[in-house]
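User: I'm writing a tutorial on reading structure tokens. Could you give me a worked example: one chain, its sequence, then its tokens, then a sentence or two explaining what the tokens reveal?
Assistant: Sure. Here is the example chain.
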Amino acid sequence: MESMRDIDRAMEREIAKGSCPLRFVKIEFGDSPYQEIASREKLLEVLSYLLRTGDFSAYPFFS
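And here are its predicted structure tokens:
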């Protein structure tokens, strides 16, 4: 496993290249953090949201 210093250095290199890395300080999940995508329609909705297409095109990528 990488040390935090290694991760920080990698992030600094990415920032210098113009990338926008994210770092989460603390993330907690509930008892059931996952939801099954049980239909093709739900899958298309999730992909549209993630790719910001269709009904979700007005949503910003970053808030």
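What the tokens reveal: The radius of gyration is 17 Å. The CA atoms of residues 9 and 23 lie 12 Å apart.
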